[in-house]
Amino acid sequence: MPETKENLPQFIEAPQFKAYGCWWSKTFLYCELNLKPVMAAIKKSKNHLDKLVNFICYVIAFAGWLALAYWFFRYGASFLETPGKILFFWKEKHILMLFFLLSLWFDLFLIYRRSEQRAKEKKINYKYFQDLIEKPTPQAVDNNRKFNVATVLNEESLSVFQEAYSLASKLDQPEVRVIHLFRALLRDKTIQNLFIRLKVDAKKLVAKVDKHLIDP
């Protein structure tokens, strides 16, 4: 059934959950974020540090593979005579080989970082709601189940919310509005590229948004 103004979820305040949200599939949906300025600053610093560590690891890992390639270029001719010996190239005592073997630790660290990042990509478990849709029971309604949608936001979305909250705090404004979120989105490179393709004058747009923020 197409969504109309009448059947769209209505946002209400639920006293039993002490939260503001809406009911959907007999589950109360709400968004609870920790947007304190101190936490935002710590998280931003951590993200910068993680990027720096990743960059250093990539440089060392790449240099390790270059060292291996150069070693084969200089000393690999002897391995061509006895191909079976190439399986034990790592036993050769040479500074380039030592550097390559040490750089493998950084390769493993980068693999761990990628797996950790994939694990953070949380997705909504629709089975949590599908059971209630297909088999509605009185118990399901009485349980008053709730779901915090903030738990499935990715890092990019969380950073936008953090930026919007920080902007509202700096301007001494009591709540985060759409314009704060829009201003925070304008700092994202993907959004900037979108407006560039649309041939939008970025400076004028930012100036108008900032003017409206200061004097709504």
Account of the 3D structure:
With 216 residues, the protein is α+β, with helices and mostly antiparallel strands. Helix content is 60%, strand content 8%. It contains nine helices and four strands. The protein has helices at residues 37-75, 77-81, 95-120, 127-134, 138-142, 155-170, 178-185, 189-197, 202-214; strands spanning 12-14, 19-24, 27-30, 145-148. A four-stranded mixed beta sheet has the order 1-2-3-4. A hairpin with a 2-residue loop joins strand 2 and strand 3 (27-30). Helix 6 packs across helix 7 (178-185). The longest helix is centred in the N-terminal third of the chain and has 39 residues, at 37-75. The protein is elongated, with a radius of gyration of 27 Å. The chain starts with 11 loop residues before the first strand and ends with a helix. Residues 1-5 and 138-142 have low confidence and may be disordered.
List the helices and strands and how they pair.
Blueprint: E1 12-14, E2 19-24, E3 27-30, H1 37-75, H2 77-81, H3 95-120, H4 127-134, H5 138-142, E4 145-148, H6 155-170, H7 178-185, H8 189-197, H9 202-214
Parallel strand pairs: 3-4
Antiparallel strand pairs: 1-2, 2-3
Helix pairs in contact: 1-3, 6-7
